């Protein structure tokens, strides 16, 4: 079985209904390491060597986060800025992540319709993945179609369970 690293990037993990449910479900899987970045680095002082070692010890990388202002929370951006160094993740000799699947698991407050030309966000959700897709390309990781739970502000418990179940299926597919 392949090992999956889940980088959980919620800014306030104890206040998150969706991300907290996903983290708890993923922690039950023996081949999955859930790495909650705000719990590890509340001061944003990221241990680059430790993070790079975690990446090397896993076969796939998942970023789990709520969609805020059309991107990820700041801790994930800081993680990318610090950890994905030249010579490690890209550039001369920077091939350490080549071939690893890279998957986003994202929750949005807005509904699927909100992310359409007719919706209040004006663009389809796929338009917002371009920087993440470019990161996968630059690092040689293999882009996976993102897994979404949308409309979290009105999500029923049944809808939450169904969404987390879909996410578990995606994680299990990465482990196969």
Walk me through this protein's architecture.
About 35% of the residues lie in helices and about 20% in strands. The longest helix has 19 residues, at about 155-175. The chain is α/β, with parallel strands linked by helices and about 180 residues long. Strands 1, 2, 3, 4, 5 and 6 form a six-stranded parallel beta sheet that branches. The mean pLDDT is about 95. The radius of gyration is 16 Å and the shape is globular. Strand 1, helix 1 (about 15-25) and strand 2 form a beta-alpha-beta unit.
Secondary structure layout plus pairing:
Blueprint: E1 4-8, H1 17-27, E2 32-36, H2 37-40, H3 48-56, E3 60-66, H4 74-83, E4 101-108, H5 130-139, E5 142-143, E6 147-150, H6 157-175
Parallel strand pairs: 1-2, 1-3, 3-4, 4-5, 4-6
Helix pairs in contact: 1-6
Core attributes:
single chain, 176 residues, alpha/beta, six-stranded parallel β-sheet, 18% strand, globular
Biggest sheet features: 6 strands, parallel
* Oligomerization status of the protein chains: single chain
Contiguous runs where pLDDT drops below 50 for at least 5 residues: none
Q: What is the count of DSSP helices, taking H or I runs of 4+ residues?
A: 6
Helix content: 25-40%
Order of helices and strands: EHEHHEHEHEEH
Shape: globular
- As a whole number of angstroms, the C-alpha radius of gyration is 16 Å
Count of beta strands: 6
Q: What do the pLDDT scores average to?
A: 96
Distance between the termini: 6 Å
Strand content: 15-25%
Q: In terms of structural class, how would the helical and strand content be classed?
A: alpha/beta
